[in-house]
Specification:
With 136 residues, this protein is an alpha/beta fold. The protein has one domain: NAD(P)-binding Rossmann-like Domain (Rossmann fold, 3-Layer(aba) Sandwich), CATH 3.40.50.720. The protein has a four-stranded parallel sheet, sandwiched between helices. Helix 3 packs parallel to helix 4. The protein starts with 6 loop residues before the first strand and ends in a 12-residue tail after the last helix. The relative contact order is 0.19. The structure holds NADP nicotinamide-adenine-dinucleotide phosphate.
């Protein structure tokens, strides 16, 4: 199948693995909806969009913002994705062990890395195509 009509949603694409995946898919001809939280991330995606390859559409989202997830879902209503990749996440600060982390830090980690991706996946479950598959 030609890849020029494939769409991916990458949540947390401003840097790191998400940006790398967006760049690789775009280079292979995939169209990518990429979410960021700030203008620095937006600029990186705009630079990517200028390169040869698929289209890049940039959206703003903080995955801890339930209303933001609902708003993004509405903005993307009718779109179907061959790949939905939730990269957004945070690493523990300091030593990163449960015994020394503050309760606020532990809660932030749990909400961002566990609760938010589940809520996001639930919101977008109807947006994945039946042909959703690994990148080619
Ligand atoms: N790279 C590895 O080898 C590795 C290994 C094990 C686990 N992980 C985990 O996998 C995840 C991704 O890794 P990475 O290397 O790509 O990390 P990274 O370079 O720190 O990038 C994290 C990405 O998540 C976004 N993000 C963080 N909190 C967010 C929020 N509340 N809402 C929306 N976006 C948010 C960041 O956006 P901003 O730019 O706006 O902050 C950034 O785009 C992280 O949770 C990391 O801890 C990575």
């Amino acid at each position: 199948m030609a890849v020029d009509n494939r769409w991916a949603l990458i949540v947390g694409a401003s840097r790191g693995l998400g940006l790398g995946l967006a760049a690789e898919l775009q280079r292979r001809g995939w169209n990518v909806v990429a979410t960021v939280r700030d203008t620095a991330g937006e600029r990186r995606l705009q630079d990517l969009a200028a390169k040869p390859g698929g289209k890049i559409r940039v959206e703003r989202l903080d995955i801890n913002d339930d209303a933001g997830i609902a708003a993004l879902r509405r903005r993307l209503d009718g779109e179907l994705f061959d790949l939905v990749f939730v990269n957004a996440g945070i690493a523990p600060r300091g030593r990163g062990d449960a015994a020394s982390a503050s309760r606020d830090e532990a809660a932030e980690l749990f909400l961002t890395n566990v609760v938010a991706p589940i809520r996001l996946a639930r919101a977008f479950v109807g947006c994945a195509t039946a042909r959703a598959s690994s990148p080619s």
